[in-house]
Amino acid sequence: MKKIFTLALTLAVSAMFAAIPAAEKIALIRLYKNTNGAQWTNKWDLKKPETQWYGVTIKNNQVTGLDLSNNNLTGTLPTEIGNLTGLVKLNLFKNNISGQIPTRIGQLQNLQSLNLAFNKLEGNIPTTIGQLVHLQNLEMYMNRLNGNIPAEIGQIKGLQTLSLYNNELEGEIPTTMYGLASLKVLLLSSNRLSGKLSPDMANLASLENLSLFENKFDGQVPFDLEKLKNLREMNISYNMFNGLVSRKLAQLDTLHMTMINEQGVATTLKVEKDNTAIANED
């Protein structure tokens, strides 16, 4: 019995320290070196097993989690990050990561949560993001990302949170996004987005929080948005919307539908009640 117990213990210990695939170890080491690992708040001892590296979760000899949030990573993301194909969660929130998001991030097709927020990332959001079909939470706010929101995001059917506020994104909201029936939180404020809101936004049946604050949207706020029965919080002020808005929607806006007209002057949308337009400050 003692021999059996010893053997079982040996196997368990061996499994615990089993090496991850070489490609995954290369990716981790490259990330460490690219982001000045020697200056991390919680450093890695590369001589020790990967199971002892801070923020690394390993299951079945694969890296499934990487949480290095608020850890003073300074530098760029390596293309080899695409080697971490077993990742379910990647959290690099609040560091000093600069440069572009590697297109190979689309290879992380097991990801359920991706947080790159509060860094210094720039350039376009890669279209390969649409390959992350299991993603539920996508957070890239507080960066310097520009260009259009990729239409490919509409392929992530299980997406629940999309947070891209405080970037430099341009263009219209892709129509493909209106098919995201599971989306609960859509935060796109403080960008350079423009165009008119489509009535199809009412297809976001699960939406609870909508923030389009401080962009360049214009036209009328679609009355169809009243169909969003789960909507609890909305902020669409400091855009260039005009015309009438429903009272129900106006009551959700914390800044009372304050807009900026073409002359740069703050105005207030009028609220429709019983087919009569009245100022919403009454």
UniProtKB/TrEMBL annotation:
Coiled coil: none annotated. Keywords: Glycoprotein, Membrane, Repeat, Signal, Transmembrane, Transmembrane helix. Residues 1-18 form the signal peptide. InterPro entries: Leu-rich_rpt, LRR_dom_sf, LRR_R13L4/SHOC2-like, RLP23-like. It is found in: Membrane. It holds the Pfam family LRR_14. Gene3D superfamilies: Ribonuclease Inhibitor. SUPFAM superfamilies: L domain-like. Residues 127-241 form the Disease resistance R13L4/SHOC-2-like LRR domain. GO terms for cellular component: membrane. This is Two component regulator three Y domain protein.
